[in-house]
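job 3f2a | input accepted
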Amino acid sequence: MTKQVAVILAGCGAFDGSEIYETTLTLLRLDQLGIGYRCFAPDIEQHHVVNHLTQQADADERRNVLVESARLARGEVTPLTELVADEFDAVIVPGGFGVAKNLSDFATAGDSMQVLESLKEVLAGFREDAKPIGLICIAPVLATRLLGDGIAVTVGKDPGVSGAISAMGGLHRSCSVDDIVVDLEHRVVTTPAYMLATRISEAATGIFKLVDRIDDMMS
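job 3f2a | predicted structure (219 res):
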């Protein structure tokens, strides 16, 4: 495996961490293509913990994003601060509300959001070296804060989120669940996944296309 991709996680679970299906589909496609990968996550406390059965937050429970991400990565996850862009050919961020709660404060701040400083620091190297960046589901909201204005991305058709992207200086493009948006100038690839998907197979089609395009861009 000569190509290497960093995958950045935000916990474990659709409502307070990384979306499990989106992450698994990403890792599956990378492996199918013979691309090496390594998972990273910030060593911080989660914004909150959500009971995924009731979808209610538990005010008394505390969890760590790195520890929770280890559940999803089968224990093989490294602190985000140890991610070195020079060691990888691309980076992918799966979705899940952990992106909007742990990697940023988009869930509460909207278009006034700030991103985690350690994420901004490690992504700077990928941007400077023009290495491909894949953002899935809600993760495209990070683009302007991490990479600058004028980047074309998609979250599907959600008017609230797409409006926030535009307000932050991004260029939102409507997109079906099974497709991708590619900003060739900025080397960014996005897909809606569970912003639109109602079945895992729908999410898989777009995510596989994203990974395939990242693969082409690394060539």
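job 3f2a | DSSP finds eight helices and eleven strands in the chain.
job 3f2a | closed
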